Amino acid sequence: MPAESIPSSLLPADGRFGCGPSKIRDEQLDHLLRHRDILGTSHRQAPVKDLVGRVRAGLADLLRAPEGYEIVLGNGGSTAFWDAATHSLIERRSQNLVFGEFGQKFASAASAPFLEAPDVRKAVAGSRSEPAAVAGVDVYAWPHNETSTGVMAPVTRVTGDPGALTVIDGTSAAGGIDFDAAECDVYYFAPQKNLASDGGLWFALFSPAALERVERIAASDRYIPEFLSLKNAVDNSRLNQTLNTPALSTLLLLEAQLDWLNASGGLSFAAARTLESSSALYDWAESVEYAAPFVADPAHRSQVVVTIDFDDTIDASAVASALRANGIVDTEPYRKLGRNQLRVATFAAIDPADVRALIGAIEHVVNAGS
What we know:
CATH superfamily of the largest domain: Type I PLP-dependent aspartate aminotransferase-like (Major domain)
CATH topology of the largest domain: Aspartate Aminotransferase, domain 2
CATH architecture of the largest domain: 3-Layer(aba) Sandwich
């Protein structure tokens, strides 16, 4: 299928639909420029510490942090947090739900030699596995949303095991999918999805039980590398700092996004926006003969990462290439999934009107190639 010229009337105002890094709004860049005097200054001095404090407060507001919960941050992204959680949160054994790439990576990290082998519950791609109470498990872990497959899971405590921690990977869900924070003990994420920032930091909402677990493991004889110590992260976060120099641009972009989301109505506003965008795509895919949602069960479908399968008569990679040639970028499927599909982010920063325009552009490309 040749790269088709799409009429300008069908093009979205902003053609960024990538699942990470995500679209960053112009207003965030303006905020970064207004505060560029912070860049290159000491992270142990008031201007940067105050910035960290504002971000922590903004996240607590957005996530509706229950009494006693704390926002913790640390250097690195979700990969660093998986290793930190393995060293500092899991006492003996975890149960890991695997229905995509992120869940699998945490399960691999939890297979550490100083822990019992995790109870790994895998699902067929495009569906999700479910948690169940198991004796000896002290951490139940799964992603709120799988960026690789477009599968979403509820955030709810595992019944029958009150002493265990519920640890949720919120990376592609945080700031775009509504949930009750009281239903988990740790909700962790990197900020480059709905929160429209850059890399270099992880953030997490910790319950009192999770904070107590961190303290108890840190006081044990377990070897914990300093960089992977969640106690270090908690102690530094309470001082509005990180162990090593934080990514200041990431913090400033995140601050601007939090200000916008919270001023607009918080998590309910963001969730309504992403639901509007994702529903438009799912409804369209179900209305045409040549496409269908990859995730068959509507209850499992993500509202922030939409995966659409195409009929064998349509080359989805050629559609993505034609879109890219017209400035609509990053609709390619997850590289390891190997399906004839498009993957579209519907994060909070993405305008639902642009998603509707994308649908028209896809139809134009498909019809031109017929």
